[in-house]
């Protein structure tokens, strides 16, 4: 798939066409950045290649963001052969025309810090909290994992604010970071990762920094639990992009253990947040091989998704279950290469738990080859104790996809037939019905939602909610209270094109159905649907193409009693009445810039994508900026926004 991978492509600056050994780190010649771009990047970034950003899009990224994408992001395998100086030269060339950010207008909070203008990439100064850090004390309204509970419902039962107070929500503080993920909150503590390499512990109320780990690149949500393995009694676990998991004392930031590399495939990575199941930490494993396959010199494909179980005390791997069980075999000869398969079925999303049955549920990505397999585009139930697959249900066959395929492709890696890339990226949710029966609900990029029998994987119902596409349909997450499932729909390509072809020679898109659905978990029937409003897109004024002002709703929602919080790629953040779907509060995260606590003056917002909001102890947190699939608006850096009633 997947939109996170696609988003990193949109962050990267060089879709290089070779797969050469890394060159020695010699200084780049004058104008080297322009020369490399013209020779190796222009054909994609100015040739209408699907998902490739234009030079104008790339110019709004920070230089460091582009270098990081080429060095450790999805474009790292494609940038093999470039020296560090080459990467910096390309990034410098692409960002040279960046203009200073406009004056700030909102969101300083209570911490006084010197301000630094954004010119060619923001430089931050962490506002450290004064005095000793208080002990971590749990509260009834904590949000300590990606999905807040075992079933990953994203339902905050004790939010610390009422539905009636939602219209009074005001911005309290803002904090800049590159690619910030969804935060976790326990008491007055907040933990958040980002792709800049900084893992922060903040004061949840004021936003000041309690501690920071500076060598951890991740986009996963921290898991925070009470645990005797930590001197403070609280531990947090993070899945890093480089296939490692690390455990820290949540109070001090001291590392407790570091796992071995969970996957030997060098272009695999961790994108889904881990979950705790008793004495085990369950970690999903994904990859960027479908992007690497764009290269003509790459031999496709060998990666297989998996779920790993680690000992929570030590990080030792207890079991690892691949999502593809068929043996690797020769596929065909192509462009002088011997292609292999099956491959793919990455696990992009966090798992959800069913402790009563002793199961963990995962959903899988697409296939990278045309060798038959039942692993991709599947919902799977795995025994927590043993790693044995209890059942699996493939909903789309032959969704064989790697990036860069089309009439002009010369990679030799494109599968036949080429699939639609409509796999799973949203964590499934176990629902209990009025009579006590249970249904496992899952949403797919095809725009389809499904209800499965958790005992055997049998399909109970299916419902089309969107047109679906590679970046459309149901993207990053769904949510639920005790009666309804709330399912956002992206339909990104359809909305972006307004029915027109997305690129020369491409077919016209169906109209799409972006918005928020409330669905009956027993039948799949739509109870209400609220279309994504056609509201002003403020970030279009920063030089972005108007076509990038997109109303898609791809982010995961957050639910409290009576309300659903959901964001959109146009930067709007809204609260919906859970009974009717009526919008009761909205805030444009792009209508103003922010003076952030960590020293950025004029920090813009952008699209809302990815893992969505966190609601905890009277506060609502959302990340606005370039994260997830489309990476629209902003300046290549995200801003974590904290709201409270009346801003208090």
Major beta sheet, specifics?
Answer: 5 strands, antiparallel
- Count every beta strand, where a strand is a DSSP E run of 2 or more residues: 37
The secondary structure category is: mainly beta
What does the overall shape look like?
globular
**What fraction strand?**
25-35%
Task: Indicate the mean pLDDT.
Answer: 85
Low-confidence stretches: 2-25, 99-121, 497-508, 540-547
Compact description:
With 648 residues, the chain is mainly beta. 9% of the residues lie in helices and 28% in strands.
What does this structure look like?
By secondary structure, this protein is mainly β. 9% of the residues lie in helices and 28% in strands. The chain has eight helices and 37 strands. Strands 11, 12, 13, 14 and 15 form a five-stranded antiparallel beta sheet that branches. Strand 31 (563-567) and strand 32 (572-577) form a beta hairpin. 61% of the residues are buried. Mean pLDDT is 85; it is low at 2-25, 99-121, 497-508 and 540-547.
């Amino acid at each position: 798939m997947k939109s996170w991978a696609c988003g990193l492509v949109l962050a990267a600056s060089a879709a290089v066409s070779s797969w050469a050994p890394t060159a020695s780190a010699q200084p780049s010649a004058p104008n080297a950045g322009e020369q490399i771009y013209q020779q190796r990047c222009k054909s994609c970034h100015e040739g209408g290649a699907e998902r490739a950003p234009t030079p104008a899009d790339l110019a709004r990224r920070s230089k460091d963001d582009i270098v990081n994408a080429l060095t450790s992001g999805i474009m790292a395998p494609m940038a093999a052969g470039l020296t560090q100086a080459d990467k910096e030269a390309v990034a410098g060339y692409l960002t040279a025309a960046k203009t200073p950010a406009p004056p700030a207008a909102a969101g300083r909070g209570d911490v006084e810090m010197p301000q630094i203008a954004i010119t060619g990439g923001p430089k931050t100064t962490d506002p450290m909290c004064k005095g000793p850090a208080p002990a971590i004390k749990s509260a009834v309204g904590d949000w300590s994992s990606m999905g807040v509970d075992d079933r990953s419902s994203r339902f905050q039962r004790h939010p610390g604010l009422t539905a009636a107070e939602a219209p009074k929500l005001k911005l309290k503080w803002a904090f800049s970071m590159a690619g910030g993920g969804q935060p976790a909150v326990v008491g007055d503590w907040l933990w958040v990762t980002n792709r800049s390499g900084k893992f922060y512990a903040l004061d949840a109320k004021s936003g000041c920094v309690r501690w920071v780990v500076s060598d951890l690149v991740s986009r996963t949500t921290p898991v925070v639990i009470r645990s005797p393995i930590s001197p403070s009694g609280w531990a947090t676990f993070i899945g890093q992009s480089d296939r490692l998991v690390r455990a820290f004392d949540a109070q001090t930031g001291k590392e407790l253990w570091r796992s071995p590399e969970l996957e030997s495939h060098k272009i695999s990575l961790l994108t889904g947040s881990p979950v705790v199941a008793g004495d085990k930490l369950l970690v999903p494993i994904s990859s960027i091989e479908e992007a690497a396959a764009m290269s003509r010199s790459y031999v496709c494909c060998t990666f297989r998704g998996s779920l790993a179980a680690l000992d929570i005390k030590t990080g030792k791997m207890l079991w690892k279950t691949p999502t593809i069980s068929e043996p690797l075999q020769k596929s065909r000869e192509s462009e002088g290469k011997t292609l292999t398969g099956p491959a793919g079925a990455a696990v992009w999303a966090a798992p959800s738990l069913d402790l009563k049955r002793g199961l963990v549920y995962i959903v899988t990505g697409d296939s990278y080859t045309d060798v038959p397999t039942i692993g991709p585009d599947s919902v799977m139930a795995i025994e927590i104790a043993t790693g044995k697959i209890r059942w699996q249900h493939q909903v789309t066959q032959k969704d064989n996809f790697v990036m860069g395929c089309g009439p002009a492709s010369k990679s030799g890696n494109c599968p036949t037939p080429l699939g639609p890339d409509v796999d799973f990226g949203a964590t499934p949710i176990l629902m209990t019905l009025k009579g006590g029966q249970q249904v496992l609900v899952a949403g797919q990029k095809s725009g389809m939602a499904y209800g499965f029998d958790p005992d055997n994987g049998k399909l109970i119902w299916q419902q089309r909610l969107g047109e679906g596409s590679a970046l459309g349909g149901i993207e990053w997450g769904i949510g639920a209270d005790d009666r309804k499932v709330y399912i956002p729909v992206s339909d990104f390509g359809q909305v972006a094109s307004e029915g027109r072809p997305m690129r020369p020679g491409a077919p016209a898109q169906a109209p799409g159905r972006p918005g928020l659905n409330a669905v009956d978990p027993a039948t799949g029937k739509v109870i209400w649907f609220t279309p994504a409003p056609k509201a002003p897109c403020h970030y279009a004024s920063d030089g972005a193409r108007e076509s990038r002002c997109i109303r898609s709703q791809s982010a995961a929602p957050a639910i409290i009693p009576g309300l659903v919080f959901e964001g959109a790629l146009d930067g709007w953040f809204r609260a919906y009445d859970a009974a009717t779907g009526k919008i009761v509060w909205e805030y444009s995260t792009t209508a103003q810039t922010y003076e952030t606590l960590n020293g950025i003056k004029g920090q813009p917002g952008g699209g809302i994508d990815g893992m969505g909001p966190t609601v905890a102890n009277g506060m609502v947190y959302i990340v606005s900026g370039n994260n997830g699939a489309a990476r629209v608006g902003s300046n290549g850096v995200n801003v974590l926004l904290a709201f409270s009633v009346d801003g208090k």
